[in-house]
Specification:
With 130 residues, the protein is mostly helical. It has a domain of 88 residues: Arc Repressor Mutant, subunit A, CATH 1.10.10. Helix content is 55%, strand content 9%. It is built from four helices and two strands, in the order αααββα. It has a two-stranded antiparallel ribbon with strand order 1-2. The protein is globular and about 65 Å long. InterPro entries: Metal_resp_DNA-bind_regulator, Tscrpt_reg_PadR_N, WH-like_DNA-bd_sf, WH_DNA-bd_sf. Pfam families: PadR. This is Transcriptional regulator, PadR family. It comes from Clostridium fallax.
């Protein structure tokens, strides 16, 4: 009988970046402010401005995430602008009760999973470097 291989089991999706965008947007909206897509993009851009890491997001990804959140009923949107003054309209998003409940119920579990993933990566890195 063949003996099975010993394998280290690692998470397949180390970090689900889409989920990070979802929770970040819901966190900002839970503060009671309305946000628009470019503001979220600028937050990420500013956070990674001095980082050697690759920039993790595009405006398309942010707007896709906002659209997805709206489809799920977690956010609502409305257009704001002044046609008379010829100011460009922007779509502002606000959190719904359902979105707030989702955020409060799931964000801590996701953060715990990120910490576990970081611990696993730290252990594997240590194994490879020591």
């Amino acid at each position: 009988m063949a003996k099975g291989r010993n394998r280290i089991i690692a998470p397949r999706n180390v970090v689900n970046t889409k989920q990070i965008y979802i929770f970040y947007i819901l966190k900002e909206l839970a503060k009671g402010h309305s946000v628009f897509g470019n503001r979220v993009y600028e937050d990420f851009k500013n956070r990674f401005e001095d980082s050697t890491l690759p920039f993790p997001v595009s405006t398309g990804t942010i707007y896709d995430t906002l659209y997805d959140l709206e489809e799920r009923g977690y956010v609502t949107s409305h257009w704001e602008g002044d046609e008379f003054l010829n100011k460009r309209s922007k779509k502002l998003y606000s959190i719904t009760d359902r979105g707030l409940e989702y955020y409060k119920t799931h964000v801590n579990d996701y953060i715990d999973n990120l910490k576990k993933t970081k611990s696993l990566i730290d252990a594997l890195t240590s194994m490879l470097t020591k």
